[in-house]
């Protein structure tokens, strides 16, 4: 497969509703790179736990389910797919049941270790095959890809993030309650930031990008500038700047 323009890993971290997924997909597509939605992988594992009738608080059984779950995450930026045991679960993992349980399941240390190892294999394969990958989640710059040459922590105030997520839910045909969405955003922020393993935080060398007052093209432009400034774009000769 031909290499794209991006050379290396772009790590995008931040809380839910900041627009990470949308801008990460566009950035990857524009640079001929792969795209990895790490949150979808945790959601797929959470769905497996729920389908097995396991209480997410039962860490031993949740880990057993995670170990056996056949999660396959596609890395095409134009159509990122998530399969669980051969079934496309891309729509189901965005439902309210999974959303309420994913923080608890993803906080289990053994579950995180299993999923992170899989994510690192996906990243290595993408670098070998096309040269670059945009990875988004909550611990990419700190745990999954700590050596990434560009780490960006994308943030926005909670109200703006709730409005964005409510808009996404409405576009997907899901019922929307803005108050409930805001409460869920704040709940996940508190849970993800306080968990013992891989808490949500900006890497020490991450660029913090506040998107509260930026639209999607504005965020994409800022990221493209950062990618260029870091010398991560392939030159006509095939070499990387910098």
TrEMBL record:
It is found in: Cytoplasm. ATP binds at residues 14-22. InterPro entries: Cytidylate_kin, Cytidylate_kinase_dom, P-loop_NTPase. It is an enzyme of class 2 (transferase). Its main location: cytoplasm. The keyword Ligase does not apply. It comes from the Bacteria. It holds the Pfam family Cytidylate_kin. One of its GO terms (molecular function) is kinase activity. Keywords: ATP-binding, Cytoplasm, Kinase, Nucleotide-binding, Transferase. Its EC number is 2.7.4.25. The keyword ATP-binding applies. Residues 10-227 form the Cytidylate kinase domain. It catalyses: dCMP + ATP = dCDP + ADP; CMP + ATP = CDP + ADP. Belongs to the cytidylate kinase family. Type 1 subfamily. NCBIfam families: cmk. This is Cytidylate kinase. It comes from Saccharothrix lopnurensis. The lineage of its organism: Bacteria, Bacillati, Actinomycetota, Actinomycetes, Pseudonocardiales.
């Amino acid at each position: 497969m031909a290499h794209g323009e991006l050379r290396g890993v772009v790590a995008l971290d931040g809380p839910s509703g900041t627009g990470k997924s949308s801008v990460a997909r566009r950035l990857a597509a524009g640079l001929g790179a792969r795209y990895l939605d790490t949150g979808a992988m945790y959601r797929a594992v959470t769905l497996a736990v729920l389908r097995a009738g396991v209480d997410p608080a039962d860490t031993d059984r949740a880990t057993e389910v995670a170990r056996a779950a056949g999660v396959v995450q596609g890395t095409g930026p134009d159509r990122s797919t998530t399969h669980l045991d051969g079934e496309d679960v891309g729509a189901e993992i965005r439902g309210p049941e999974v959303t309420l349980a994913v923080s608890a399941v993803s906080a289990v240390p053994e579950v995180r270790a299993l999923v992170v190892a899989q994510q690192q294999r996906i990243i290595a394969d993408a670098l070998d095959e096309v040269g670059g990958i945009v990875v988004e989640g909550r611990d990419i710059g700190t745990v999954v890809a700590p050596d990434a040459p560009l780490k960006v922590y994308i943030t926005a105030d909670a109200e703006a993030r709730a409005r964005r997520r409510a808009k996404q839910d409405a576009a997907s045909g899901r019922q929307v309650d803005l108050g409930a969405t805001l409460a869920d955003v704040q709940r996940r922020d508190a849970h993800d930031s306080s968990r013992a393993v891989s808490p949500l935080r900006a890497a020490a060398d991450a660029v913090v990008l506040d998107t509260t007052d930026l639209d999607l093209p504005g965020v994409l432009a800022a990221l493209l500038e950062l990618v260029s400034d870091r010398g991560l774009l392939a030159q006509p000769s095939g070499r990387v700047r910098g």
